[in-house]
Amino acid sequence: MTSAAPSSAFDGDHYDQFLAAVRAQFAEATKRSRHLFRTDATDLWAAYLDAAPAGARQVRNCAACRAFIERFGGLVTIDAKGAIASAMWPKSAPPAYLEASRALAARVEKATVIGVFVGSAAELGRARTGAWTHLAVEPPASHRWTGAVSTAGQVAASKSQDRAMLERGLADFPVALVRKALALLASDSLFRSEKCVAVARWLVELHEHRAAAKNARVRDHITWLAVAGAPAGHCHVRSGMIGTLLEDLAADMPFETLKARFDAKMHPLHYLRPQSAPSAGNIAQAEKIVEALASAGSLARRFAKLEDLQALWLPKVEARAPGKGGVFAHLTTRRDAPMDSPAPPAVMTWTKLAQTVLPTAETIELFIPEGKQSYMAFVTAQNPDAPPILQWDRPDRRNPVSLYLYVSGSMPEVWNLRAGRFHRVTAAVLFPSMWDAERPQAHHGAGVSLVLEGAKDTTHEAGGGMFPEWLKSEYHPVRKTLEAHFRGAKIAGKDEATGCGLCLSKSASKWDFELRVTAGGVRTRYRLDRWD
User: I need a labelling partner for 516 at 20 to 30 A (CA). Which of 2, 10, 266, 332 fits?
Assistant: First the structure.
């Protein structure tokens, strides 16, 4: 027998209304919570049958409904305060099912959370077999795992491992110590500290949230909720750079020693950069991942052009009145040269310049100093339709642009620039990771590039212009292989590049760059000394 018959013989218990109530409960649960959790709730099927009215038990004894209740009936949501609620069982239902629904909800909400639920199926349960309908729900797209590299089961297992590592990290590093680390990172006194600020702040907030929990059970729920939504790597406290910093602080290490250790590990040539050649196994794994993600075409890169970039500022183009079509209409008239302001260069931060000067700036010129500087090139996907591989590139908001520079700097002549003279700026462009203001990626750092007319990397022969730390997490296990690939790859379109210039990074210890800005017929000089 089943719990739902196609004839009117069983219509009196309003099973269809109960099924609709279960589906509405699940829809509301997935709407209010991004994550679902498994519990150790047991004997749910027995509780369901025991609550059946006299004479209805056999009608409800359905294998498909039993499978649904035993597999998915124990799912819960966790709110921000650590309270759990059944994802399936409504508190109100048709009279014939009310006792069963409330009994199931009560049993589930008293159970212990044992893991994050990750599913890939479009349907939980089996809605129909022939003419019979059964308990089943359809998860929204936001709650279905669609990853091509890992299965839903593997992701769920990794979340359990994340929880164990996070618990150890929280126990080893008390909140006072993490607050100290956060304050140090926020002071910008450590090299590339922005890489660790987010995880330090996350740990402080989690410590405080757990401390406010009324009991151990609620504290456990809060931890599971944090694990479910944690960015990649945040739970691996001891093995990450934040763990290194916390250990050094716990050891009461002198600041200069601590800083030297941190700065060395955060060096661009070391941080998340493989230090040895890839193994045959890693190469084979990389082949499988790239094939699964259909991203082979994403690895081919070309030098970016100005039209590929999202510019913060562009030179003002003077509007010209329509010509009368005369013989000499194509000739431009002489323009008066701008008057130079008699004032010495105004020392200014980039932030202030962007707010007060850029809005009215008609043209900008950058003075090229002698010696090495952080000259850079924007690069992008050679095939714009290739799948995203960068963390800031998404299917719904494409941004395949990255940049490269030489760690120790490079001479201006390498970039077709002449030292000791001003060069025209054709655009001011924020780092690509900053282009989406709605989803900022602060851990990739802040900075701006002044794109220069005629600039290009004249010496480029090999090197794909890609750092492994920028890639999506699916590629992290094969960083060695990808690093080796990009090191030998050649970027196409060197001669057509129009997206090269000077990189101004917030994390740089010192700036000293002179600009000439023309606005309203007056040319004023500014000296940039820092980001903000």
Answer: 332
